[in-house]
Amino acid sequence: MSRQFARERLDPVLDLPDGRLTSRAVLGATIGNILEFYDFGTYSFFAIPIGQAFFPASDPFASLMLSLATFGAGFVTRPIGAIVLGSYSDRAGRRPAMTASFTMMGAAVLLLALAPSYDTIGLAAPSLVVFARLLQGFALGGEVGPTTAYLMEAAPADARGLAVSFQPASQQIAATAGALVGEILSVTMTSEALNAYGWRVALLLGAATLPLGLWLRSALPETLHLPQPSDLIARPGGQSRADRRIMCLGFVILASCTITTYVTGYMTTYAMNTLNVSAPLAFGTALISNAVGIAAALLGGLLADRAGRRRVMIWPQVAALLMTYPVFLWIAESRSAFALLGGLGVLTLIGTIPYSAFYVSMAEGLPRNIRGGAFATIYAFAIAIFGGTAQPIVTWLIHLTGSALVPAWYMLLASASGLFAMLMMPETAPLNLAPNDNRTFTTPPPLPSHSGRDEHP
Question: Where does the Major facilitator superfamily (MFS) profile domain start and stop, copy by copy (predicted)?
């Protein structure tokens, strides 16, 4: 891997054609997120059979809790990966950090998919699974920060919101793909086969993206050497008071987003384990809500480019806050396909829009010399503390209270905290907002042509 890092530092840097972000660059930057959240979705969908394979117990609840706790183990190493790989991206470039992250991530997914069961090798089986989750957590910790910084830096000023929205959109794409695979497997395999090895098939399908991802990332144009646009913050040295304020607010918003995302991703297990609906309907619920989330994430980025960041963060968040309890009450009381598919679909549509605007606002609000590392670290700590615990906490509270409305209360608390922080975030869009609401974009200086090696400031 050290040789790979050395090659990344020495290879010529490709220029972005006409200063525009190409579709190949977007895919190369976000494919790590796609694999990450595909694996996340697959593990969540198959938490019950994975628990039976690696953590057999006489009590099904204990087996499920051990499975979810192992899923959460990957969050422990995320802050470490964020600090190491995020800081590396601020020194050496976004491309080498993203390539290293993706390589380790792929190795972890393969190990998880191919690990023998407890019945085959005993205690070594859960040990392998825990190690795979720890390695994956380290890799993923350094994934989001560099890719978000890359997408924002590579995009023109009037399209940064849309470019960065591919970060949350890629997560929804992956979750949709995972739900689609789960849906197909649930209707084409017997229940015995699905529980025995269906989850392995799903994980191996995700691992098939490894060659494509490595090829795409090895050819990505670098953005760290590009001149800083005039509308972005450019402060030398360490963190300022303004930086720390944005980072603190960002942590609260990311915690809110994390809880919402992971509780929503838990809906397949929730639907089967708590609502006792059929597997095809449970997988269909995730499929519909995640597919809606793709459009919502891109719409949020598009709106952020036209209306500014704060408006697009605040008002949809208010709507989602007001809708959460009624939607879950409808689902818990009716337990119908229409409530599950329609209710969660609408809630996902409204609730996903604010976070595209937040991602670009956070990236714009941080100086380039700390952007990748700071974003990665804040994201990783929010995920580690709130993402890794969301599903076990919800499962435990449902078991303790017997209430099917536990996810709603947990999401309400998270959404209210996120809204409070969004209200305090500054506007970072390159917009001149005149009293008559006419908007003109601040145009950054033209990008020079680079034909030699990396030039890091």
Answer: 25-429
Number of independent structural domains in the chain: 1
For residues 55 and 246, give the distance between their C-alpha atoms in angstroms, rounded to a whole number: 42
This prediction has a pTM of 0.79
- 140 within domain boundaries: yes
Cβ contacts of 62 within 8 Å, gap of 6 or more: none
Indicate whether 6 pLDDT > 60: no
State the chain's mean pLDDT as an integer: 82
**Phi then psi dihedrals of residue 207, to 5 deg:** -65, -20
Q: Are 256 and 390 in contact (CB under 8 A)?
A: no
Residue 258 CB partners (closer than 8 Å, separation 6+): 382, 383, 386, 387, 390
Looking at the domain assignment, is residue 228 inside a domain?
A: no
pLDDT in tens, 109-143: 899 889 898 888 888 888 888 888 889 889 888 88
Query: Is position 117 within any domain?
Result: yes
